[in-house]
Amino acid sequence: MRRAAAAVALLVGLTAVTACGPDDPAPAPAGAPPVPTSAPTSAATAPGAPTAGAAPSKNAAPRPDGTITVAFAGDVHFEGRTEARLAVQPPEPALGPISATLADADLSVLNLETAITGRGAPEPKLYTFRTSPKALSVLKDSGVDVVSMANNHAVDFGADGLTDTLAAKDSSPIPVVGVGRNAKEAYAPYVTTVRGVKVAVVAASQVEDLTNQKWRAGANKPGIASALDVPALVKAVETAKQQAPVVLVYLHWGEEGKACPTAAQTTVAKKLATAGATAVVGTHAHTMVGSGMLGNTYIGYGFGNFLWYGTSDYPNSNDTGVTTLTLTADGKVTGEAFAPAAIDDKGIPEPVTGATAEAALKRRDGLRGCAGLSPAPKAPTASP
Known about the structure:
Shape: globular
CATH superfamily: Metallo-dependent phosphatases
Number of domains: 1
CATH architecture: 4-Layer Sandwich
Distance between the termini: 48 Å
Number of strands: 18
Helix content: 10-25%
Strand content: 15-25%
Largest sheet: 8 strands, mixed
């Protein structure tokens, strides 16, 4: 399928592409904005330290029932048709109207699938992505609290690009997880307190591609956290669990265009559930994959595209939305809500309502069967 997609892309001058797998999203624009080659490094972001950043600005007093809400969304790019979203001015959010759903949650997490650089040579792959540090600011302004960069496009522009990406991480207005100057930093959780509840966020990539082969973080090597090193990922989750009762794991995983999880996904999901993860979620398939409960752990095998730079030939690839979980202080999942959306011709996830929303919910719930998951409890009525 990737060969067919590549052929189509070449025929149209690479202006409309299919996906963002190991070798499949669109090339970076020639005039990518420059990025500083260095940035101040705070003690909180020193190599090996838990990923730091300002506590969520919407942090508030504990609810009477002690619960918190956490929202998840899928893959984001600021390139092609979505590059212009970097220039939107408040009060318009870069992610469009669905930003309100992210902002309403106590904590929100998604995947930024790009290098943050204006330098470097592209890696030897068909498609490469890059953007400017402003992407992190506009995501914050869109209600996003934590960004995963553990994916197969975080190091699309080599060592120079990775240096810039890590500098952008250091100066980011929101925490970035899943990439670091060494393995300890890349696997380190972001730990924060949300409405009195301690939460840890860990990220890693399970995609078997050039990035995971060449740019996997090591003891003295910068790069991404790899979910292919299962013992390292399990240890990271166990370590995070010692720091917080709520542990959220955001993975880049799955097979492009496939609406059922792979054996690799189901295997690692079980291991992370055993290690104490509250939720194990992620993206990469460019289509939604089943979500639900595996014992006491919430599993989201695929949230699909979100702010999407180009077109895709995969079925239902424009289906997207925001999944919000209600969690207790000890990490129990007590509710799930899904706000469906559809990616429009500008690449923006536009909320849908009425019959369209009902159809989207039905499709989403139907994906649970081949995922081997049970339904999550419905979200209770939100309290102030």
